[in-house]
Design brief:
This protein is mainly beta. It is 6% helix and 56% strand. The protein folds into 2 domains: 41-112, Immunoglobulins (Immunoglobulin-like, Sandwich), CATH 2.60.40; 120-430, YVTN repeat-like/Quinoprotein amine dehydrogenase (Methylamine Dehydrogenase, Chain H). Strands 5-4-7-8 form a 4-stranded antiparallel beta sheet, with no helix packed on it. It is globular, with a radius of gyration of 30 Å. The protein starts with 5 loop residues before the first helix and ends in a 16-residue tail after the last strand.
């Protein structure tokens, strides 16, 4: 019988030994485990999901470009910090450093890439203030002339002011509040001849009514005003009713009441007639501003009180700022706050959070409709801030101006009133790349 060669005896054992050594390594590798030389240890890897609007951006991880483009899921990444750079032709780049953790998914999602475009001059209109309503889509502009102030509705398709109301005096409008049930009516807050004034502006038919001194807010499609000892109700047809307020009653909104405490200067918030308990507010001249679902917003000058009536006991949180800008995102109400040279974001159930501070005053803020980004306008710069605060918020400068009066986002356009390249007036900057041309903006008298 022939003798079996030595190598034929050894090879099966060698292959068996190699299999026994390699099999666990292959199993560990396919399960996402890797050797981390920095830690001298075996760790399970993590996953990174990158999602952008628009898609198709190239990706660099720690300076090295990978073959994939957004939107993409990257698996089996070794734990650690990753510098992520996204680039798409025609758009501003996006960068951020995020941490990948073992057996966890890290999201770089809801990223909007902003077009790298120049503002387009469309009209020499002297716009001092914008107002955009996300729910109705209405866009209003306060236009100043040498003799008077007008409030106009801007049609976003034709870029024409198709209807306007003349206040018949020069006024400084600080804010416009749209009627939630009628987008052709606005409450204009401002000043004229050194006095605080409020107007009811209506576009169908056009009219502007200067209101008696007091505090006003929208309720059930009408305007409720509290003056000394009298409550005014201005209905949708502009009919007015007056009634004497009960002693101590300061304001009414739906079934909520603000009243003076007996023998006390503080106000108490109660719900319904004949309530036996309520919430005592901090000292101040608080009045109602908004009621939406379980959120009740009160205002005292530049102070705001967000009352969550859906909690038991009721939860109250305060913030400061001259402008409070609401948006509903993921079915939750949240606000952007302009406070001097600061911008804050105030989310349901949380304290207000600072997102930007600079040395000069902020002139305008506006939500992007997606609810994840806030536009901030200074005297010379328009920038978008992402609300993702991990390792700092992304700031993208969209445009620079010689002077900016106000700016606002409506749908997918940014409207700016300011001066640039020797031209003063109204400018438009698209927030997504489109082939449609922008028509010149004109002013049409009613």
């Amino acid at each position: 019988m022939a003798k079996i060669p030595f190598h034929r005896k050894v090879l099966p054992w060698m292959f068996t030994l190699i299999f026994l050594i390699m099999a666990p390594a292959v199993v560990f590798y396919t399960s996402g485990y890797r050797w981390n030389p920095k830690k001298n240890a075996i760790e399970r890897n993590g996953t990174l999901i990158i999602d952008t609007t628009p898609a198709g951006a190239t990706i660099k991880l720690n300076g090295k470009q990978i073959p994939e483009t957004t939107s993409v899921t990257l698996q089996n990444l070794a734990p650690g910090n990753y510098s992520i750079e996204l680039d798409l032709k025609g758009y501003h780049p996006w960068t951020k450093t995020l941490s990948i953790e073992p057996e966890r998914v890290t999201f770089a999602s809801d990223i909007i890439l902003w077009p790298d475009e120049q503002p387009q001059f469309v009209s020499p209109l002297n716009v001092s203030r914008f107002m955009a309503d996300a729910d109705s889509g209405a866009l209003a502009a306060v236009v100043q002339s040498n003799t008077s102030t007008s409030i106009g509705l801007l049609d976003k398709k034709s870029n024409l002011i198709t209807s306007s109301v003349d206040l018949k005096e020069i006024a400084e409008i600080s804010s416009l509040e749209i009627n939630p049930q009628n987008e052709t009516q606005f409450l204009a807050n401002g000043a004229a001849d050194g006095k605080n004034v409020q107007w009811l502006a209506q576009f169908s038919p056009p009219s502007a009514t200067k209101l008696p001194d007091g505090y006003y807010h929208w309720q059930s499609g009408g305007l409720i005003g509290q003056t000394d000892g009298t409550q005014l109700t201005i209905k949708a047809d502009q009919s007015v009713t007056r009634e004497q307020k009960p002693n101590g009653l300061k304001d009414i909104l739906d079934n909520w009441r603000l009243s003076l405490l007996p023998n006390n200067s503080n106000l108490i918030l109660t719900q319904g007639d004949g309530a036996k308990q309520g919430l005592i507010l901090p000292s101040g001249e608080w009045r109602f501003w908004m009621h939406k679902k379980n959120s009740l917003i009160l205002k005292d000058g530049n102070r705001w009180d967000w009352i969550d009536s859906g909690q038991n006991p009721i939860i109250s949180r305060q913030a400061s700022g001259e402008q409070l800008l609401p948006i509903t995102f993921d079915r939750e109400l949240q606000f952007a706050i302009k406070n001097g040279n600061e911008v804050w974001v105030w989310k349901h159930g949380l304290e207000a959070e600072l997102i930007y501070r600079q040395s000069d005053p902020i002139v305008g803020i506006s939500w992007h409709p997606a609810g994840n980004d806030v536009m901030v306008a200074t005297k010379n710069e328009i920038a978008m801030f992402s609300l993702d605060g991990r390792n700092g918020r992304n700031k993208t400068t969209l445009a620079n101006f010689d002077d900016i009066k106000d700016a606002v986002i409506s749908e997918n356009k940014l409207y700016v009133s300011g001066s640039r390249d020797g031209q003063t007036g109204l400018w438009i900057l698209p927030l997504s790349l489109r082939t449609n041309s922008i028509l010149p903006l004109g002013f049409i008298s009613p």
